[in-house]
Amino acid sequence: MENIRTLVPGIPSYGLFFEAVVDDYTDVNNFACSALTGFGNDYFANHFWVWVKRDAGGAGAAPQGQRRLITDYNSITGFFTHDAFTAALAVGDTVCIVHETLAMGDLMEGTYDLAVGELVQVPFFVEMDTIVNDVITLFSFDALGVTIREVYISMYLPLEAAATFTPTWEKTRAGDLITFVTELVPALAAIATPAANAVYSYKLGEIAQGLEGRFRIAQDNAGAPVTIDAFAVVLMEV
User: Fold this and answer.
1) Which residues of 131-150 are buried (b: 16+ CB within 10 A; e: fewer)?
2) Terminal C-alpha separation, the chain
3) Which of 6, 91, 149, 210 has the smallest number of Cβ neighbours within 10 A?
4) Residues in Cβ contact with 189 at an 8 Å cutoff, skipping those fewer than 6 apart
5) Which residues of 164-185 are buried (b: 16+ CB within 10 A; e: fewer)?
6) How many other CB atoms are there within 10 angstroms of residue 51's CB atom?
């Protein structure tokens, strides 16, 4: 696999994943993070979830491990409103703010038994900050010894007035880096001038054993480097 690093909390993010420490206004429905100001009112509302990563007291007390949908956000104060936790947050608690496309179901964890085998979800995160009028591979997955039943990719693109992004999904025999063939289903449309705070998501289907799939993004008409924030979940049958 190339250009891939496993998602770990604390990696800076530009649109899908944020981590911060609660520093004010704590109760079961509200908290404030001064580190998360300035994104614009309601930026996080109804599209992001708050996960409580760590109890500041170190005892794992509630609401550590709980997640709730964010329903309101004040850009000036960093004040968040969310569905109620079972206990109030405390100053010093660590929270993760995660986009809905990453938070669906138990996307980052879980193993499922099937009659034909066992399906395991594996998450990946990539951040590329140097693309400018170029083509890069965001994700590459080898199906060696396993069948990849589904590839799910979500990426955040910043607003660029004159930039065009073209995603492609290609496959080849594993280990053959020469004869990648573009997959026509699903068809991936070019993105001309991404909307503000735009997140684009794709379900790319199966990679049979012995094949390799890669997700690439081409970009042109840009006057400066662009940062792409992307997340993938691979559903493997082992």
Assistant:
1) beeeeebbbbbbbeebbbbb
2) 18
3) 6
4) none
5) ebebbbbbeebeeeeebeeeee
6) 21
Q: Where are the domains of the chain?
A: 17-103, 111-237
pLDDT tens, position by position, 154-187: 888 877 667 889 999 999 988 787 888 998 888 8
102: its two tokens? 């990453």
Options 3.40.50, 2.40.10, 2.60.40, 3.20.20; CATH of 17-103: 2.40.10
Diameter over CA atoms, the chain:
57
CA distance 221 to 201: 23
- Could you give the dihedral angle defined by the CA atoms of residues 168, 171, 177 and 179, in that order, rounded to the nearest 10 degrees? -90
CATH label, 111-237, candidates 3.40.50.300, 3.30.230.80, 2.60.120.680, 2.40.110.10: 2.60.120.680
One-letter amino acid for residue 204 of the chain: L
Q: List, for residues 129-163, the tens digit of each pLDDT value.
A: 678 889 999 999 998 888 888 898 988 887 766 78
Which residue, among 51, 41, 127, has the nearest Cα to 89 in the 3D structure? 51
pTM for the model stands at 0.63
Mean pLDDT of the chain: 81
**Whose CA is closest to 106, among 89, 119, 90?**
119
Question: Which letter does DSSP use for residue 101 in this model?
Answer: H
Instruction: Give me the phi and psi of 107, to 5 degrees please.
Output: -60, -35
- Closest listed residue to residue 95, CA positions, set 122, 126, 127, 68: 68
Tokens in use for 100?
A: 């809905």
